[in-house]
Design brief:
Blueprint (H helix, E strand, L loop, with lengths): L10 E4 L5 E9 L8 E8 L2 E7 L27 E3 L5 H4 L2 H6 L5 E4 L1 H25 L7 H8 L2 E3 L6 E4 L2 E7 L7 E7 L2 E5 L22 E4 L11 H18 L2 E5 L5 H15 L7 E3 L2 H12 L6 H8 L10 E3 L3 H6 L7 E5 L9 H8 L5 E5 L8 H6 L4 E4 L2 E4 L3 E4 L9 H11 L3 E4 L4 H12 L1
Parallel strand pairs: 4-5, 5-6, 6-7, 11-12, 12-21, 13-16, 13-17, 14-15, 14-16, 17-20
Antiparallel strand pairs: 1-2, 2-3, 3-4, 8-9, 9-10, 10-11, 18-19
Helix pairs in contact: 3-4, 3-7
């Protein structure tokens, strides 16, 4: 359908019949899912600007891989502007280091992303510091750098072009991925390059479905699920509810490692609906995540960025993220006390790939028990603890402790906020660009998607 540049690729140049030359460098994120960081250099007689789209952490076995301490492939002091597609750590998590190393330009994001960034970055910097101390490494940045970074972020609206130089603008559109997520369109002299960031699936659960910007010449698309199709939301919802019912029958524990941003809110909304309708018996549910609690508060603050049915519930005073048997455990003492509550019980905690957060403590305690079920509800990056559990490991290392895995392991894909193979192909067809670049995916997934788009 469209010419697709060979994968992997690290840069491209647009210059034919243009007064300005555009050079794009995929500084990170060209050969892996995480670490979104794309540089665009626009040069001409009247302009010389450098724009970054995202500045994210590379993640794998560790929350913060050692590659995050390697030198940037560009000088942070020369960057004029940064645009963030959304607030996940792999899209924002290196911004404090960029600021630490001399970035003095302007930073832009939607209002929800701006409000989520300090919450996510303050959590990330704590995990990074703990990892660095345990591994005797130097962290790439500290809390003071987070403070300086978040002060630089300006909120902008969808569809409102931001002019960086004459005839050089960036416009954000709804990406349908998480609250406030954005597609980023770079327009130079009437030619448009569109970056998906992380594209949302269709239909989305909590946020409106993604938009399809017009006039795109070059598409840079993610490919996390470029070779896979998600299960349906309905099937995954039933699998979640069956896992809860099975846990009740076994008087056991259901562990749900969930990303604090979007995935946790989706699960809460499903449990709220099921308990409200009486299709699920009341069972103690612990949201053991201070981070998720803060994130959920931001969701409630921006109903206009949610799907109409969710927005109407919030505006009527009906909280779609809460129900009588839910207990939000914020302080460490409350978290520890969960162990004293007999089964059946459900524990939702971060991180979604089990490479940080409180879920690791619960996994160390409950994975050896045959009455435990662990439900994996999102992508598990290679080498992460979650991926090893998903792949059937009988024993895992959790912070130096050998832990037997006797729990039942289930995985559902229908709650993913990522577009799957069919969504990505459909999006490319609707955008109808002249060229497509495939990034942000494992090699197999990205290559498969590139072949399907070009075929």
């Amino acid at each position: 359908m469209f010419p697709v540049l060979p994968f992997p690729i690290s840069r491209f140049r647009v210059s034919e019949a243009m007064a300005k030359t555009i050079k794009a460098t995929f500084a990170r994120g060209a050969r892996r899912v995480t670490g979104s960081n794309f540089l665009f250099e626009i040069e001409g007689d009247d302009v010389s600007v450098r724009i970054l789209i995202d500045c994210g952490l590379s993640q794998g076995e560790r929350f913060c891989e050692l590659t995050n301490s390697e030198p940037f492939s560009y000088d942070p002091k020369t960057i004029d502007a940064v645009f963030f597609t959304h607030a996940h750590a792999d899209h924002i998590g290196l911004f404090p280091r960029l600021v630490k190393e001399g970035f003095t330009g302007k930073a832009y994001a939607t209002a929800p992303t701006r409000d989520l960034m300090p919450i996510m970055l303050e959590d990330s910097v704590q995990l990074i510091a703990l990892e660095a101390k345990r591994c005797n490494d130097e962290p790439p940045y500290g809390i003071e750098d987070v403070t300086h970074a978040v002060e630089k972020i300006t909120a902008i609206e969808y569809h409102a072009p931001v002019q960086i130089a004459p005839n050089v603008t960036v416009t954000l559109y709804n990406a349908g991925h998480i609250l406030g997520s954005a597609l980023a369109a770079l327009d130079v002299d009437g030619r448009r390059i569109l970056l998906t960031g992380d594209l949302g699936r269709v239909p989305s659960v909590l946020v409106p479905d993604h938009e399809v910007p017009e006039g795109v010449e070059i598409l840079v698309t993610e490919s996390v699920y470029g070779n896979r199709v998600h299960g349906s939301i309905e099937d995954s919802t039933e699998a979640l509810l069956e896992a809860v019912r099975g846990t009740i029958a076994k008087q056991g524990t259901l562990l749900i490692p969930a990303f604090s941003l979007e995935r946790t809110q989706i699960i809460l909304s499903i449990l709220d609906s099921a308990t409200g309708k009486g299709t699920l018996p009341a069972v103690p549910v612990f949201m053991d995540s201070p981070l998720a609690a803060k994130v959920t508060a931001v969701y409630k603050r921006y109903p206009q960025f949610l799907r109409e049915e969710v927005r109407k519930r919030l505006e009527s005073g009906d909280d779609p993220f809460s129900f009588p048997s839910l207990k939000v455990t914020v302080n460490p003492a409350e978290s520890r006390a969960i162990s004293n509550v007999p089964g059946p019980k459900v524990i939702i905690a971060g991180a979604g790939m089990s490479h940080g957060g409180r879920i690791k403590k619960h996994e160390a305690e409950y994975l050896p028990q045959a009455s435990t079920t662990i439900l994996l509800v999102g992508y598990q990056v290679p080498a992460s603890l979650g991926r090893r559990i998903m792949d059937g490991a009988k024993e895992v290392d959790i912070d130096g402790q050998k832990v037997k895995v006797r729990a039942k392991v289930l995985k559902v894909g229908g709650f993913s906020a990522h577009a799957d193979r069919d969504d990505l192909i459909d999006f490319a067809e609707k955008v109808s660009p002249k060229r497509v670049f495939v990034v942000l995916g494992e090699t197999e997934s990205a290559t498969f998607l590139a072949q399907r788009i070009s075929g």
